[in-house]
Amino acid sequence: MSILERSISAEAPLLSVNGLTRFYGSRVGCQNVAFDLYPGEVMGIVGESGSGKSTLLSCLAGHLETDAGQVVYNGQDVLTLPEPARRRLMRTDWAFVHQHARDGLRMNVSAGGNVGERLMAGGARHYGNIRKTAEDWLERVEIDPGRIDDRPSAFSGGMQQRLQIARGLVTGPKLVLMDEPTGGLDVSVQARLLDLLRGLVRRMGLSVVIVTHDIGVVRLLADRLMVMRHGQVVEHGLTDRVLDDPQHAYTQLLVNSVLPT
Amino acid sequence: MSDYNFAYLDEPTKKMIRRAILKGLAVPGYQVPFASREMPMPYGWGTGGVQVTAACLTPEDTLKVIDQGADDTTNAVSIRSFFAKVAGVATTTRTGEASVIQTRHRIPETPLRSDQILVYQVPIPEPLRFLEPRETETRRMHALEEYGLMHIKLYEDIARHGAIATAYAYPALVNGRHVFDPSPIPRFDNPRLESPAIQLFGAGREQRIYALPPFTRVQSLDFDDHPFEASKADGACALCGATHTYLDEIVADDQGTRRFQCSDTDYCMERRA
């Protein structure tokens, strides 16, 4: 056990997943997935297309029904929470970052309205304060606050993605679930986004589950890494260990498939 | 008259609508689905209101129909003559004399009494519709009291216009529970929704009925630093001189001269009599 692993396991896990299983008819979506996520930790999930990583994330977020297993957060199984409580959790303590920003944004509402939505849903009723918070957050995700009244459709892909992140983080969540946040962005925009994410994660002490097929992204962001294939977790460990000394044949293949830069 | 059942609709249909009305009264502001019938007029002409009126009418009733406050517009005249024909009820243009008032887009200026029923024609009953197009989702939001979205609309108004620019169909919270769309009445009328009369809302195309029992609490949504304001045009009625009524702005000649006039024609006429 490394120093890092020991130091974080001293605390109670923020999120504890046990035996999470989801079938699509007779096909396996993901099967018997278990992991603990500690406060301030970033967990990467990698695997090829169809390996069940997005299924797993959707099950965690409650977008998909789960067939078996538990997702324990703050001592409560999120999957058995009544719907009002679960939805409240999703818009306060949790945030979800979609691969396509337009899935996570309201495209016909201004940037400020998008960032303010979670605040207003939480009962904020002071326009001036909401707007100030929105301006502050636009600045933190490196969007010019002067564009607060522009609609996301007038933004570039990278800006939309940063706006989506601001919209999720404005309530100060503890856990962020990200589904391929850098997918579909060009390399320089990706680098900037990753830089921003890394900064936010460190400053806010966020716990993150990040799903990606990009090994470079997890190497930069993730503390720990889970490798999935055919709906199963095939390897699991500290990111550098898994990537530099892959044990499972599939992980070896995955690591070797990365194009040299 | 003998060719039609009383008030056009057949009795089982009226019973079905009355059940929806009672449920609506029991849960103020909740949109009760009902099996809206084809009516002999196009959607948008008040088919929902007509069905609710038909289900409420008794032979002893006196009916008044207004459209934007006026008794003499096409919509009001045709619905009034429709019920005179198929129900044979007395009709009136005087608010005080009516027992059932069907209205499009206004609440009469004359204060209503507890023995009166006000029936609204509603085009779109769902206040969240333009923000969330999915009906399944809006129903869930009502069920879970997730009304944060409603404030986004007001936020957008202030961001774009500097003030809440929603001048009609202004969303309000009913009885501390359901956010509802008071049909496209001007927001000037919102404070007057708290009334001794029974208020029923019928949306024919959307197949929804909702209701406000007498004296139900209706709070118009707003922000702490941008409070709700029951606004009206700043002027006086050119006919009766009233400054406290809701005014229509009318272009009077080819030079673009404008003048104001009470939107409630009956009230204006009574003041002049």
TrEMBL record, chain A:
<dbReference type="GO" id="GO:0016887">
    <property type="term" value="F:ATP hydrolysis activity"/>
</dbReference>
<dbReference type="GO" id="GO:0005524">
    <property type="term" value="F:ATP binding"/>
</dbReference>
<dbReference type="Pfam" id="PF00005">
    <property type="entry name" value="ABC_tran"/>
</dbReference>
<dbReference type="InterPro" id="IPR003439">
    <property type="entry name" value="ABC_transporter-like_ATP-bd"/>
</dbReference>
<dbReference type="GO" id="GO:0019700">
    <property type="term" value="P:organic phosphonate catabolic process"/>
</dbReference>
<dbReference type="InterPro" id="IPR017871">
    <property type="entry name" value="ABC_transporter-like_CS"/>
</dbReference>
<protein>
    <submittedName>
        <fullName>Putative phosphonate transport system ATP-binding protein</fullName>
    </submittedName>
</protein>
<dbReference type="InterPro" id="IPR012700">
    <property type="entry name" value="PhnK"/>
</dbReference>
<dbReference type="InterPro" id="IPR003593">
    <property type="entry name" value="AAA+_ATPase"/>
</dbReference>
<feature type="domain" description="ABC transporter">
    <location>
        <begin position="15"/>
        <end position="255"/>
    </location>
</feature>
<keyword id="KW-0547">Nucleotide-binding</keyword>
<keyword id="KW-0067">ATP-binding</keyword>
<dbReference type="InterPro" id="IPR027417">
    <property type="entry name" value="P-loop_NTPase"/>
</dbReference>
Automatic annotation (TrEMBL), chain B:
<keyword id="KW-0004">4Fe-4S</keyword>
<comment type="similarity">
    <text>Belongs to the PhnJ family.</text>
</comment>
<comment type="function">
    <text>Catalyzes the breakage of the C-P bond in alpha-D-ribose 1-methylphosphonate 5-phosphate (PRPn) forming alpha-D-ribose.</text>
</comment>
<keyword id="KW-0479">Metal-binding</keyword>
<dbReference type="InterPro" id="IPR010306">
    <property type="entry name" value="PhnJ"/>
</dbReference>
<keyword id="KW-0408">Iron</keyword>
<dbReference type="Pfam" id="PF06007">
    <property type="entry name" value="PhnJ"/>
</dbReference>
<dbReference type="GO" id="GO:0051539">
    <property type="term" value="F:4 iron, 4 sulfur cluster binding"/>
</dbReference>
<dbReference type="GO" id="GO:0046872">
    <property type="term" value="F:metal ion binding"/>
</dbReference>
<keyword id="KW-0949">S-adenosyl-L-methionine</keyword>
<dbReference type="GO" id="GO:0019700">
    <property type="term" value="P:organic phosphonate catabolic process"/>
</dbReference>
<dbReference type="GO" id="GO:0098848">
    <property type="term" value="F:alpha-D-ribose 1-methylphosphonate 5-phosphate C-P-lyase activity"/>
</dbReference>
<protein>
    <recommendedName>
        <fullName>Alpha-D-ribose 1-methylphosphonate 5-phosphate C-P lyase</fullName>
        <ecNumber>4.7.1.1</ecNumber>
    </recommendedName>
</protein>
<keyword id="KW-0456">Lyase</keyword>
<keyword id="KW-0411">Iron-sulfur</keyword>
